Amino acid sequence: MLLQIKNLKIAYEKAIAIKDISICVDEGEIVTIIGCNGAGKSTLLQAISGLLKPVAGQIIFDGKDICKMSPQQIVTMGIAHAPEGRRVFRDLSVYENLLLGAYTRKDKKIKEDIERIYTYFPRLKERWKQRAGSLSGGEQQMLTIARALLSKPRLLLLDEPSMGLAPFLTIEISRIINEINNKEKLSIILVEQNSQLALRISKRGYLVETGSIVLEGTSQELVANDYVKKAYLGI
Amino acid sequence: MPYNALIQILINGLVLGMIYIFVAVGLSVIFSMLRLITFAHGEMFMLGGFATWLFINGLGLPYYIGLALAVIVMFLIGALLQLTLWQPLQKDPMRCLIMSLALSSVLIGLSNIVFGPLDKSVKSPITGVMQVGNVYLSNERIAIVGSCLIMLIIVIIFFKKHKLGIAMRAVSLDTIAASLQGINVKRLQMIGFGIGCALAAFAGGLIGTVFTIHPTMGATPILKAFVVVVLGGLGSIPGSIVAGLIIGMLDSIATTYFGSIGNVAAYIVFISVLLFRPRGLMGYEEA
Predict the structure, then answer these.
(1) Chain-centre distance of CA B158, in angstroms?
(2) Nearest chain B residue (CA) to A95
């Protein structure tokens, strides 16, 4: 097991964002977390990457509890987070954004790696000199994912990669996510409001409502579930 | 004679402009990385002057070695001040502002006690004049402009090409996204503050040979540097460079022809530009 979260509880000031969540992720699998806006999905990812400190519970990555670690240490351990809303460094070039993705790496293969990552995102290669803020929404999303990949993660956290993108772009992004999962042999936690898309590319899924997990299972099971169908897939 | 005088005025303007640029770029780096406006920055300029004076006149070190040491010492002092005074207050910009005002007064008072209020000057390593055609140029001032240009190039290359410099620009754009890349934001902010102070100190040290060093010498440059930073566009280093040169030239020309009332010229231009371009010459629009 690559990541195991046990009875996690997170509070902002006094409001409880996550009541009690336990999930696990195996090596090489895509796990999705679906739920409405405000259910606690992004909060969960922020806790995994060390931006938020839990009130209770454990986050065990590769056998070590990472709850007390700083975001820097967590990146070095092999977790990369492509945050919600893309958050590229707007006034930096595409290439500089990618270089910073590899900030914690000490090896000499960063340039080769950037070239390799370009094969997934040829559009970024064409625009490597451009200001990241001048890219389109879809390109910025690709840059966010590419930047996260450059830290050579074993676990990739993707927060709402389809947000604000045209349908044909969400299909493109999901194709790339699948390709990355196959070729890079990394595990992915995909947080999405677009449940249909998320369940199509993931192996397993969890349904989160107001800070707790209300349903879990393989993606086929979730798609077939009456409640999920009615409330989240609109069928 | 008018031609010769004009050249002199331009050279003086360049020297002034360079001084403003360094104080302003330091302010700009600190503002963009920490969203902090520090009124103690003029005192970093002043301490840079005194540190240079101590190393050169006190310890008898060669000029450029003394200056380099002063810059390094002020980098360390700046980083230490950020760590101890500002980092604990970082969540509250108002307290940070007041802390900087307090520090400014304390440093002026301390320098009065330690160094005394009398003017000091650093002995210049370069003397004489250079004749180009029928124009006489002071070697010393040319050396100052040259040193400033070299330092500016180093600063620009650092922020454009060095991994640390690029990471510092990232911190100034988005601290959360920066920490998700594994960048230690707090540490870089501390280093950024140190760099800002070191740049002001560099200007303070250089000026010791042409002007004098005294505890309140920071008051005018800090005011002008704020004008330069805002005129150039908050947080934009190229903007600060252009604006610094403009203000330096204006000061030099206006004070030559109109005496000390000429200092107003810079503020008039400043206000007029902001009326038509509130984000400054090269500032980005908030996205």
Answers:
(1) 17
(2) B166
Residue B4 touches chain A, beta carbons under 8 Å:
no
How much is the ipTM here?
0.93
**Whether A205 contacts A32, CB under 8 Å:** yes
State whether B167 and A76 contact (CB < 8 Å).
Answer: no
Q: Alpha-carbon distance B189 to B195, whole Å?
A: 10
Is residue B180 less than 8 Å (CB to CB) from chain A? yes
Question: Contact, B21 vs B148, CB < 8 A?
Answer: yes
A202 token code pair: 């993931």
Residue B129, chain A, CB below 8 Å: the answer is no
The reported pLDDT for the residue numbered A66 is 95
Residues B274, B246: Cα–Cα separation, whole Å: 14
Distance between CA B95 and CA A214 in Å, rounded? 45
For residue B113, with 0-12 CB atoms within 10 Å meaning exposed, 13-18 middle and 19 or more buried, which class applies?
Answer: exposed
For chain B, what's the residue count? 287
Closest by CA to B223, choosing from B96, B73, B39, is: B39
B280 pLDDT band (50/70/90 cuts)?
confident
Chain B residue numbers with beta carbons less than 8 Å from the beta carbon of A147 are: 181
What does the block give as tokens for A136? Answer: 């389109």
In this prediction the pTM is: 0.91
Q: Dump pLDDT digits (tens) for B44-87.
A: 999 999 999 999 999 999 999 999 999 999 999 999 999 999 99
Where b means 16+ CB within 10 Å and e means fewer, B140-164 reads bbbbbeebbeebbeebeeebeeeee
Please give the full DSSP string across A160-215, using - where no structure is assigned: -TTTT--HHHHHHHHHHHHHHHHHH--EEEEEES-HHHHHHH-SEEEEEETTEEEE
3-state SS class at B123: coil
Burial (CB < 10 A; 0-12, 13-18, 19+), residue A200, is middle
Calculate mean pLDDT across residues B188-196: 97
Q: Are strands A3-12 and A56-61 parallel, antiparallel or unpaired?
A: antiparallel
Apex B30 CA angle, B167 and B265, nearest 5: 130
Q: Where are the domains of chain A?
A: 50-168+177-186
Backbone angles phi, psi at B201, to 5 degrees: -65, -35
Going from N- to C-terminal start, the domains of chain B cover 21-217
Residue A51 to residue B180, Cβ atoms within 8 A: yes
Where would I find the H helices in A49-192? 71-77, 94-101, 110-118, 122-126, 137-149, 167-184
**Third-level CATH fold of A50-168+177-186:** Rossmann fold (3.40.50)
